[in-house]
Amino acid sequence: MTAGDHGGKIPYDDDLLRRILRDVKTVAMVGASPKWVRPSSFAMKYLMGKGFRVIPVNPGHAGKTILGETVYANLGDIPGTIDMVDIFRNSEAAGPITDEVITLAADKGIRVIWMQLGVRNDEAARKAEAAGLTVIMNRCPKIEYARLFGELSWGGVNSDIISSKRTKLSP
Amino acid sequence: MNDDHETGNDPEDTAGPHEYGFETRTIHAGARPDPVTGARNTPIYQTTSYVFDDVDHAADLFNLQTFGFIYTRIGNPTVAVLEERIANLEGGRAGVCAASGHAAQFLTFFTLLEPGDEFIASRNLYGGSITQFGLSFKRLGWTCHFVDPADPENFRRALTPKCKAIFLEVLANPGGVIVDLEPVIDIAREAGIPVIVDNTMATPYLCRPFDWGADIILHSTTKFLSGHGTAMGGALVESGQFDWGQNDKFPSMTEPEPAYHGLTFHETFGDFGFATKARAVALRDFGPAMAPVNAFFTLTGLETLHLRMERHVANAQAVAEFLDRHPKVAWVSYAGLKSNPYYDLARKYLPKGAGSVFTFGLKGGFDAGVKLVESVNLLSHLANVGDTRSLIIHPASTTHRQLTEEQQVNAGAGPDVVRLSIGLENIDDIIFDLEQSLAGL
Fold first, then answer.
1. Bridging pattern class, strands B380-381 and B234-238
2. Rounded to 5 degrees, what are φ and ψ at A113?
3. With an 8 Å Cβ cutoff, are A146 and B9 in contact?
4. Are A153 and B87 within 8 A, CB to CB?
């Protein structure tokens, strides 16, 4: 994630985000860092704790492991299917990564591209949507999971959720 | 998900989710029925601490890698509901509550400033803020430059390379002064520093500082938010819009934090990084936590904020008009009066009313002020504002007595000044009490 550009958030429907977080089981995280104190590592560990399988993609660290998962040099190297690609790179880099995802989507079963908080590439999103992918930009799946299922509110963060139903703690 | 492909990024799709009104959010924001018991109202979590699932879970919490509670000094489920509700009502991203408004101010500036840093504040502030900024902060190596906000350019003139923020009250206590926020925000934007607004006197019902571009809002929740004179508290709210990385002025937000293994708050927590740092470092290390029971009282009070503020401003307007006609009254400083120099600014920033705290001057000066506050029967002589009860005080002999006479006059609290906080009693009874007491002067 790059600092800045937190404004201008796209108002995604909460039900869409809930469905993504319910249906996705396997996430490829492009730009995952082996340093535990980096934001990508925080997000990876949190999502793993919520039951997602998170596969790190980082050419500089291919073959090593992060949080017990083997790091791959690129998306194409990952064996088996991937439900979602989480892009932890800058907005410009999100363009070619999206092109790669579109190429691999049918083969790998990829249905969602999720660009991290601060990452937004509208042209890439248009291409991916035209190819039938769902695209979320400038959000963090960890933060959205926590927002939709109650935990973000524990930190005094405005979830923007009004409901008279019991808080659901998971999808 | 395969079958219901959605293009959430289509700019033509402007319908968006339903936006709930202010009145609904005063009651519901942040509070949902308990997931286990179904309790509809927010329980008072009267506990100091919270169990860890295992050592790894504890490590994740201490490292800020996951969300959750450790110790009530840093966060509490009842307090968290209040934090979210205030953040929501202000239209902000995140809130942190503290034991008092002063504590919230301290948490804010500790998170913003390095030793040797400076900031600019309007001179028309609550007297306690002037003392905190001018004297106590000075001993921490922080310098506050006070300026007359009547000319917004005064903020620009006071800027120095070390200035890291501009602080003001749009509806100022106690003078009834309204600060023209918009040009001040432009000046701060150019300087790359945040604008902090103390919105205690106006509340988010009357004034919307984030809509004008302010970056941080502070509250003494003790006043109108809690509203019944029962619970001390403070809150800071961050808009989430300020880019801490735009310059090198805010290393506390943009550089690795040694207290958290080199974590960078702005990068890791994005638009709630400031609130997270205020909690995880300032609140953790200095400890002015809000008591859960005070959060509960404040939540209960907030549920009627919209109704109370309507009546507060209606009663205040009637009292101001009464005093304006009274022969023993030299002047009335209420921006809801058409003759008031701040009337147009009040219409701009406080379209629903100019608050219920204002001052007036007695022709009889200091002695008349003392006599008046001692002779009322219904109004309470005490040092608070924003109660259901109508309150009266003579600032020069109480809240502002630590200031020099020059500072008192500059703050709108000169020797002849009486401050009122008009409550929710029957309006005829409030006016009767003042009329009787004025007659005795």
1. unpaired
2. -110, 125
3. no
4. no
Residue A4 lies in a domain: no
Give the residue numbers spanning the domain of A100.
14-155
Q: Do B2 and A111 touch (CB under 8 A)?
A: yes
CA distances from B207 to B121, B179, B181, B221, B292 (A): 19, 12, 11, 15, 27
Which residue of A7, A19, A168 is in closest CB contact with B241?
A: A7
Task: For chain B, say whether A125 makes contact (Cβ under 8 Å).
Answer: yes
Establish if A129 touches chain B: CB-CB under 8 angstroms.
yes
Q: Do B32 and A111 touch (CB under 8 A)?
A: no
- Is the Cβ–Cβ distance between B404 and B372 less than 8 Å? no
Residue type, A71: V
**Is A171 within a domain?**
no
Closest partner residue to A158 (CB to CB) among B32, B87, B267 is B87
ipTM score of the complex?
0.92
Q: Which of A125, A133, A129, A75 is nearest to A104 (CA)?
A: A75
Per-residue pLDDT of chain B (441 residues; tens, 9 = 90+): 334 444 456 544 455 678 999 999 999 999 999 999 999 999 999 999 999 999 999 999 999 999 999 999 999 999 999 999 999 999 999 999 999 999 999 999 999 999 999 999 999 998 889 999 999 999 999 999 999 999 999 999 999 999 999 999 999 987 678 999 999 999 999 999 999 999 999 999 999 999 999 999 999 999 999 999 999 999 999 999 999 999 999 999 999 999 899 999 999 999 999 999 999 999 999 999 999 999 999 999 999 999 999 999 999 999 999 999 999 999 999 999 999 999 999 999 999 999 999 999 999 999 999 999 999 999 999 988 999 999 999 988 888 888 888 888 877 789 999 999 999 999 999 999 999 999 999
A170 falls within a domain: no
- Nearest by CB to A162, which of B20, B83, B267? B20
Domains of chain B: 22-30+48-301 (3.40.640.10), 305-439 (3.90.1150.10)
Cα-based distances in Å from B319 to B314, B379, B435, B438: 9, 12, 10, 13
- Token readout for B336 is 């809801």
Half-sphere exposure (Cβ direction) of B383: Cα atoms closer than 13 Å: 10
Q: What pTM was estimated for this model as a whole?
A: 0.94
In angstroms, rounded to a whole number, what is the distance separating the alpha carbons of residues A147 and A142?
A: 9
For residue B150, count other CB atoms closer than 10 A to its CB: 15
On the question of a cis peptide bond just before residue B161, with omega within 30 degrees of 0, the verdict is no
Residue A62 lies in a domain: yes
CB A9 within 8 A of CB A138: yes
d(CA B438, CA B386): 23
Q: How many domains does chain A have?
A: 1
User: Which chain B residue has its CA at the smallest distance from A17's CA?
Assistant: B8
What CATH code is carried by the domain that includes residue A104? 3.40.50.720
For B260-306, give the DSSP string.
GTTB-HHHHHGGGHHHHHIIIIIIHHH--PPPHHHHHHHHHHHTTHH
- The reply to whether A109 touches chain B by the CB within 8 Å rule is no
CB contact under 8 A, A13 and B17: yes
